[in-house]
Amino acid sequence: GRTVRLGGNGGVSVRTSTSASASARIARRICARSSSFRSRRMAEGRVEHWEEEEEVDTSTSEEEPFDSEEEEEEGEEEEVEDEVDRAIVELVEGEQASDDEEQEDGVDNSRYGMHPHQVDDSDSSEDERPSRNTIGNVPLEWYKDEEHIGYDREGKKIIKSKKKDELAKLLDKVDDKNAWRTVYDEYNDEQVVLTKEEIKMIQRIRTGRYPHAEVNPFDEPFEFEYKDGMHPLSNAPEPKRRFMPSKSEAKQVVKLVRALRRGWLKLDKEEEKPKVYLMWDDDLHTTDKLQNGLAYIPAPKPKLPGHEESYRPPEEYLPSEEERKAYELMDEEERPNYIPRTFDCLRRVPAYADFIRERFERCLDLYLCPRVRKNRLNIDPETLKPKLPSPKDLKPFPSVLSMTYRGHKGRVWSIAVDPQGRYLASGGEDGTLRLWEIYSARLVEMWRLGGPVHSVAWCPDSSKKLLSCSVGKSAMLVWSKLGGKATKNAVEELLKVDQQEEENQQYKWLPLVDVEVGLQVVHRSEVSFITWHHRGDYFATVSPGTGGAAVLIHQLSKKATQSPFKKNKGQVVCVLFHPTRPIFFVATQNHIRVYNLVKQQLIKKLLGGSGALTSMAVHPGGDNLITGSGDRRVSWYDMDLSTKPYKAVRYHDHAVQAVAFHRSYPLFASASDDGSCQVFHGMVYSDLMQNPLIVPVKILRGHQRTGALGVLDCVFHPKQPWIFTAGADADIHLFTNN
């Protein structure tokens, strides 16, 4: 039997003989019948949760007293209580009638060991609540696109309930008192309110206990009889650790064995340390940390006294009188701290005069000077070297001195090779312009121009056979006497100057008197450099002493001269034309300016290094150039990459005088006052994402230094991997690849 009780004012307690499931159903129906009463009580805030209480003694039944807070109720509440009582009686009679009908049906449950009124005592309301959906073990995903969720026992569709939005759910939770214990049954598509017993059961499962409070996990205690009459400390069964090997102890044993093998743990007793200590215990705190978390770094120890500080040092340590006088004349900073002296005995040694000063400086070093620990890195220098290809794989390049051209009587300032690669022109300090045959070293022609020749250049148009050079304040154009009579007539017609043109021009174009066919352009100051445009009609000259008109561009066909720059910032060293585009390079001692001749504007300004620029050369592709400077550096510029040097190399011991690119081979060279010429492999790739490859391949020597000057100029052969060098020793060398 069970006692079903409704808490609250006017609660009802009924003693029934029905089963547990029947009692639960009766209680639910009572709650439904008394909904109007509970709603009123909820408004007053005095509704208590109903609960089921099992009685231990089923033979007696007593009605529990009502928990009432007020002694008298209003008339309206008494009427509601009468209605609840009548409903309980009707429910009880209905349950008993249903039980009698089951007995009359003739179902003999005693055959199966069951009493007709005995059912499974389950505290879960889930078992008591009949399932409406009868689809069986079928995944609910099959019904996700349907309007129903399954079928009931009569085969009718169970229509899905309308889904509420999140705001509606939130409002329902706020209004509903039982929202915290309401769960959604996805199988039957309904909301289920958990009972108090079900919540307690869930709490017990979460805490790791049995779901039913009445279950006793331990066996019934039984008594032991001990012969000795002693009682054990506990009645718990024997633990496993008393007869099974311990895994944690095995791990500790493994750690001890490992420590013994590696020497971390020593079984021998340590020897007792001597009872001495350091007066200055800096060495004992090397691993300690200060309050600020930094490691303690001991101060460097002062130098210990040696033989020099002895009161009777050996004679080789004693300075002579001349050395003493020299010490006295020296500055205090350069003078040695202690000058050795000798005494007969220790009693004659006076007090050290700088003792207080040195101790004070030592205290300042200890107190004020910060100390930083620098860890030395043991790095093999070979690993820091870049991995470059072998020079054997980069052949051909000039490596052998094959021929020497001798005839000048002074320094050879400049050399140039004709576009076809058959003749070599050279100009020197002796005032002569010489023409050599390359393959035989024969002197073909020589012109005496009356002054030192500082720069020599061939006209790129091979049909004209013109040589240009700078002598004093003039830029001279000379026919090389190569070719036939038709070539001579064409050159004479080209170099012919009218008197009317001479008078109108600021820079005079005059014919050369001492030369068979020649022309000169007179400048305001000495001309130091001359270069040609790749088409052969324009050439540019540099006269540093002119100031703003230091750079001039001349047109040979019209005999015209123009000054493209009004003012030059810095002293101009050399100028060059771009190999293919209308771009003009102007190199001063500190930077390189790149101009567009068509737009007449500055494109880019390349920055130089610490030393003054001395020479410049443009790559045949036009996107890279190299410069030589007085600080022994050769700089490679990638104009598409940056305005600063991409790479700078210093392989020379003195200033770099000249640099040059090969027209067809990936080679470039630099000539220096140290008497050597460095040859490099400089490959420029068409892929813009790949940087140029620069590898030194050969050092060419053969010139003697004369008057602090070495190799003054270098130029490559236009078709062969050969290089010509001109030196201050009046010789011209040809280096070939074999």
Write the layout of secondary structure elements.
Blueprint: E1 2-5, E2 13-16, H1 20-33, H2 35-44, E3 51-53, H3 75-104, H4 125-128, E4 148-151, E5 157-159, H5 166-175, E6 182-185, E7 190-193, H6 196-206, H7 247-262, H8 321-329, H9 355-368, H10 381-384, E8 400-406, E9 412-417, E10 423-428, E11 432-437, E12 443-448, E13 453-458, E14 466-471, E15 474-479, H11 485-494, H12 499-504, E16 509-511, E17 518-522, E18 529-532, E19 538-542, E20 551-555, E21 560-562, E22 572-577, E23 583-588, E24 591-596, E25 601-607, E26 613-618, E27 624-629, E28 634-638, E29 647-649, E30 656-661, E31 667-672, E32 676-683, E33 693-701, E34 711-716, E35 723-727, E36 731-736
Antiparallel strand pairs: 1-2, 1-3, 4-5, 6-7, 8-36, 9-10, 10-11, 11-12, 13-14, 14-15, 15-17, 16-17, 18-19, 19-20, 20-21, 22-23, 23-24, 24-25, 26-27, 27-28, 28-29, 30-31, 31-32, 32-33, 34-35, 35-36
Helix pairs in contact: 1-3
Give a brief rundown of this model.
With 738 residues, the protein is of the alpha+beta class. Helices cover 19% and strands 26% of the residues. Mean pLDDT is 79; it is low at 1-24, 30-74 and 95-128.
Number of beta-strand segments:
36
Low-confidence stretches: 1-24, 30-74, 95-128
Number of helices: 12
The computed structural class is alpha+beta
Gross morphology is flat
Instruction: Give a short account of the largest sheet.
Output: 5 strands, antiparallel
Overall helicity: 10-25%
Range of strand content = 25-35%
* Gyration radius over CA: 57 Å
**Major β-sheet strand ordering:** 13-14-15-17-16
| Cα-to-Cα separation, first versus last residue | 123 Å
What is the typical, i.e. mean, pLDDT?
79
